[in-house]
Amino acid sequence: MSQFNHVGITDWEKHVYLDPAFNRPSELFCLQGSCQKAQDKLKWRPTVGFEELVRMMVDADLARLRAVPKTGA
């Protein structure tokens, strides 16, 4: 998973836990989207690739966390 690689974590499975208690009974296992209709009808083209988008989102989360004041014990 590239978002973990971006912050130097190579074994992401050590950091991810899926709690079955939060699964919805009608949850679809795999959801996918396509921008093909926007490309065809609107002549729209994405300017940011998936990997770049992941890096942008992780960097934004890290910046937000750095901005939170740390409380001392």
Overview of the structural elements:
The structure is a single chain. This protein is mainly α and 73 residues long. 41% of the residues lie in helices and 0% in strands. The protein has helices spanning 2-6, 36-42, 50-67. It starts with a helix and ends in a 6-residue tail after the last helix. The model has no long low-confidence stretch (mean pLDDT 86).
What is the strand and helix layout of this fold?
Layout: H1 2-6, H2 36-42, H3 50-67
Features:
73 residues; mainly alpha; 3 helices; 0% strand; extended
Helix proportion: 40-55%
Tally of DSSP helical segments: 3
Biggest sheet character:
none
Percent of residues in beta strands:
under 5%
Helices and strands: which structural class? mainly alpha
Rounded to an integer in angstroms, the radius of gyration calculated over CA atoms is: 18 Å
The mean pLDDT is 86
Question: N-to-C terminal Cα separation, in Å?
Answer: 34 Å
The shape is extended
SSE series: HHH
Short précis:
By secondary structure, this protein is mostly helical.
